[in-house]
Specification:
The chain has 367 residues and is of the alpha+beta class. The chain has eleven helices and 14 strands. It has helices spanning 8-20, 29-38, 98-113, 156-163, 166-180, 193-214, 223-239, 283-297, 311-314, 332-353, 355-365, and strands at 45-53, 59-69, 74-78, 90-91, 118-125, 127-128, 131-132, 141-152, 186-189, 242-249, 252-262, 265-273, 302-307, 321-329. Strands 1, 2, 3, 4, 5, 8, 9, 10, 11, 12, 13 and 14 form a twelve-stranded mixed β-sheet that branches. The protein has a two-stranded antiparallel ribbon with strand order 6-7. Helix 2 packs antiparallel against helix 7. It is globular.
Length: 367
């Protein structure tokens, strides 16, 4: 169990799994380290990175987690803080024996951590990059009622089908119309620190205006989260692990998308678009399709639209990837939290089955 990033062994093993194992963009070392630096201090939580190694000392699994203390209980959960679409361990590809052992290993982790009332693991895919998630064998694993939306673009047939799709045809028509009207649509893909700062500032402002109109809360307006994503982009746009792409009309930035790139996958995590003056041009849609084309140009195989069942995503015809959660009670307090968790899951499922109710409730709570 590690409580910080000072261990050379942990860093070496983590980076080894990034190169040879199964790791999502949200569990990369740089993402987790910067999140701990910028965002974690504002939370009443303590970092707990759990590592399982084999007899030879080789890493088999790393679980980036936190102990979160509330007024009533101590909860073990993913190091997520609401900023990850996927949550899963870093896995060695040699995980054949894990399903048999995983429950006992979780028990060992909890024992080493001391007092824990409740273990709550969310946003877990059943499999990732073709490897089954061993945590699905834990008790009380149930669907969350949500999904992410990856679109496979990794072969010629998939690319051809995408370029012949209705959304791509709509994209091309809109571009031709804008060019005829002299608006000169063009794109910037950030590479330098100056470009990163310019595009990121535009993203923050575009989201601020839109979320204010919708009376919703945008966590990107929090200073700590802004500094986290800006630092991540400065490093990532230089080494290729972040894509920050902006659409301009007549030199004005009208749409920005922020994506994470890892293991032949680009995951869109934030979007911003001007939806008042340029509403008829649909700058968000144009930039969205352009980013999918950029994914193909980079030789990536999956354009991942992230969480959220939104209409524009359906137009790309992605294959939904269901997400799961696990509730594991250790004490009486934990059992109470498990009952509450079941109630929340039932409420989520009910709202998703009734879109109008869902929209009203989200508006009521600013989400």
């Amino acid at each position: 169990i590690y409580t910080d990033f000072d261990s050379p062994t942990l860093c070496r093993n983590w980076l080894e799994l990034e190169q040879t194992g199964v790791v999502s963009a949200f569990q990369r070392f740089q993402f987790i380290r910067l999140m701990a630096q910028h965002v974690l201090p504002a939370h009443n939580s303590a970092l707990r990175i759990c590592e399982i190694i084999d007899a030879a000392g080789k890493p088999l699994m790393i679980l980036p987690m936190i102990l979160r203390k509330t007024r009533y209980a101590c909860i073990l959960e993913w190091f997520d803080l609401g900023l990850a679409d996927y949550c899963l361990p870093l896995l060695s590809k040699n995980v054949a024996s894990f399903p048999v052992q995983i429950k006992a290993q979780l028990g060992q982790i909890v024992a080493k951590l001391g007092h824990v009332d409740f273990v709550h693991l969310t946003k877990m895919p059943a499999a990732f990059d073709g490897v089954e998630n061993p945590l699905m064998m834990l008790p009380n694993v149930l669907p969350m009622g949500g999904a992410t939306f990856p679109k496979y673009l990794g072969d010629a047939d998939a690319v051809t089908a995408f370029h012949k799709s209705g959304i791509h045809e709509d994209y091309r028509k809109r571009l031709r119309k804008l060019e005829r009207e002299g608006h000169g649509p063009d794109w910037i893909v950030a590479k330098t620190a100056v470009e990163v700062e310019t595009l990121f500032a535009a993203l923050v402002e575009l989201r601020k205006e839109r979320f204010a109109r919708l009376q919703r809360i945008d966590n990107l307006q929090e200073r700590a989260i802004q500094s986290f994503y800006l630092d991540l982009a400065k490093t990532g746009c230089a080494d290729g692990s972040v894509c920050l792409i902006a659409l301009r009309f007549n030199g004005e930035i009208v749409a920005v998308q922020y994506g994470l790139v890892h293991a032949e996958r680009c995951v869109v995590i934030m979007v911003g678009a001007e939806t008042q003056r340029w509403r008829s041009a649909s700058p968000g849609l144009i930039n969205f399709v352009r980013m999918a084309d950029w994914t193909i140009e980079q030789g990536l195989k999956i354009f991942d639209l992230g969480v959220g069942d939104l209409a524009y995503k359906k137009r790309l015809s992605p294959e939904p990837c269901a997400l799961y959660e696990m509730h594991y009670a250790i004490t009486a307090k934990g059992r109470l939290l498990m009952i509450m968790g079941r109630g929340k899951r039932y409420l989520r499922a009910t709202l998703q089955a009734h879109p109008r109710w869902n929209q009203r409730v989200r508006k009521m709570f600013g989400k």
